[in-house]
Design goal:
Largest sheet: 7 strands, parallel
Helix content: 40-55%
CATH architecture: 3-Layer(aba) Sandwich
Number of domains: 1
Shape: globular
Number of strands: 7
Structural class: alpha/beta
CATH superfamily: NAD(P)-binding Rossmann-like Domain
Strand order of the largest sheet: 3-2-1-4-5-6-7
Number of helices: 8
CATH topology: Rossmann fold
CATH class: Alpha Beta
Distance between the termini: 18 Å
Strand content: 5-15%
Length: about 280
């Protein structure tokens, strides 16, 4: 029997001004976001600024950083731009130093910067493996080591690590990427145990395919019509995610609404990992 097409998702806005939504606000807080010049990082920066946070964005794309700065400032929030490449030890170190020079108070750290190299395991070079782990794992360690001490000193902070559903399932061609995200989930758990006594909340968010600009470039291609249809059929909701949906859950993890959530690696996958 033919499968009925999934209904289109209705556009839903998150009205953070409604009574009872104050726990989802970030008024008076400052959030630092790596990989903030485009994609998920840009969506998270925009949503956090709508929730009242001042934003620091770290990235390599100067024009992208300027675009998100304009968006944040249009939401009447401050935005600090840090143009650095966190793939290197020096670049990640400089990013942390610049952030602390701009502000001694960072309430939220979103470790979002990430890269992928599509290669079979047997074709993965040591350089490619190292590049993926440098961004996806080492930059998280280095930025956290720079930013979290001032959270501990003040007795409050939120760290949100952007991982991937690839940490849970085998995906041909993404061995290095998946391994780095699985390691990130374990690092998240250890951070949560070590920093929890200081009232620092640490969690990871693990999306499936999200239709960022890059996601659209890949999956909207006519050559990907059949693979996309097959992949969407494996997801119980029969669609991919939107950047705003990742940003909404990131806001939950960054806000007081999640104050008893600690050390989780939360799938954001439309039910993919529980489907038969």
């Amino acid at each position: 029997m033919a499968q009925e097409p999934a209904p289109k998702r209705a556009d839903v806005t998150c009205d953070l001004e409604r009574p009872g939504m104050k726990d989802f606000r970030l008024d008076g807080q400052r959030a630092l976001i790596s990989g903030g010049s485009k994609g998920l990082g840009a969506a998270i920066a925009e949503r956090f600024s709508e929730a009242g946070a001042d934003i620091g964005v770290i990235g390599r794309d100067r024009e992208g950083l300027r675009r998100i700065q304009e968006i944040v400032e249009n939401n009447h929030r401050n935005c600090w731009v840090i143009e650095e490449d966190v793939s290197s030890i020096k670049g990640a170190g400089r990013a942390g130093e610049k952030a602390l020079a701009l502000s001694s108070q960072w309430d939220v750290l979103v470790n979002n910067a990430g890269i992928a190299r599509v290669q079979s395991i047997l074709e993965t070079s040591q350089d490619d493996w190292s590049d993926v782990f440098s961004v996806n794992l080492r930059s998280v360690l280095l930025l956290s080591q720079a930013i979290v001490p001032q959270m501990i000193k003040r007795g409050h902070g939120k760290v949100v690590n952007i991982s991937s559903i690839g940490a849970f399932i085998g995906t041909p061609g993404l061995g290095a990427y998946a391994a780095s995200k699985a390691a990130l989930n374990q690092l998240t758990r250890t951070m949560a145990v070590e920093w929890g006594p200081h009232n620092i909340h640490v969690n990871a968010l693990c999306p499936t395919v999200i239709l960022t600009e890059m996601g659209h470039d890949i999956w909207d291609s006519p050559s990907m019509e059949k693979p996309r249809r097959e992949k969407e059929q494996r997801i119980p909701l029969h669609r991919f995610g939107e950047p705003s949906e990742v940003a909404n859950v990131a806001l939950f993890l960054a806000s007081a609404a999640s104050d008893f959530v600690q050390g989780v690696s939360l799938p954001l996958d439309g039910g993919l990992t529980i489907a038969p």
